[in-house]
Amino acid sequence: MQPIKRQRTESESEGGQPVRSDIWFDDGNIIVQAEDTQFRVYRGTLCSTSEVFKDTISNMIEAKGIEGCPILFLSDYAADVTYIFRTIFYRWSYQDHEPLPFGAISAFLRLGRKYEMKPLFDGALRRLTAVFPQSIEQYASGNMNKNIVFDNPEAPDRRSEIVIDTIVLARTLELPFLLPSAFWFASTNILSIGTKNIGAISEGDRVTIFSAVNPLRVAYADYLFDWLDETKVEAAGCSLPQTCGPTKVSHSLNFWKPPGSALVLSWRPAAAQGLCRSCAGLGKKRYGEGAKRLWKELPSFFGLPAWEELLAGAPNV
Prior knowledge:
Layout: E1 19-24, E2 30-34, E3 37-41, H1 43-49, H2 51-58, E4 71-74, H3 78-89, E5 100-101, H4 102-114, H5 118-131, H6 136-141, H7 144-147, E6 148-149, H8 158-172, H9 179-188, H10 190-198, H11 203-224, H12 241-254, H13 277-297, H14 307-312
Parallel strand pairs: 1-3, 2-4, 5-6
Antiparallel strand pairs: 2-3
């Protein structure tokens, strides 16, 4: 399993010589090395945390390494192992109401599955599904800032990186139910993603994202705002026909924005600004119905199976 590529940290040596992590217990009885970073920890704690670690350690060749401690070599990124070991050995507690760095979330998903540490995997997946929801109800209540810490909130492409990294994670870990939302966010923010970020995903996924931009814009207008077209929907009881008619035409034209504009499925009162109460009420009702229809069909815009099939194999977290 190949993890997402990352930049070398300042603590890692450039010449390939092992460097000592700050997770180093002087009385530790095993040294774990990931990339060129070494961690001195306790084998008993590792074994009690993960059956995979237990089996691996029990089958180690007991050659003495540093200060009498055997060395266990891992094929994982040092940054991922650091997140895991801080949780295991320093009892870092991540509360559900506290956001996590995306690096921690991806590390808990990858290594949580690889080393069968279910609590870490489940907790990370709950956060990611809150950001990339599978239902319109989750979408309405979700908030990226509640679940993910941004290293540099002012960086213009950081959110886009997280969308792209999530697509890579979903493909690598076979979590396809994350893809409709991630693809949707990528397609509707295509102008802010940039070639550098989108180059991290496969060519097939890039084609999928770009190909969905215009169909989504058309569906956005047709599903959510068809009530603005008097030829399709006629508001019964309109009290200001001479005002509401031109206002609807003006609103309809304003919603045809460039494909970089984000789609919003939650009702916005501004969409009915200047309309009478009857027309505004009809608009809100039709908008909600269109939003549910668009969400139900969302996977189809990216050539994915229906939500029911995608969710059939989803982990129960």
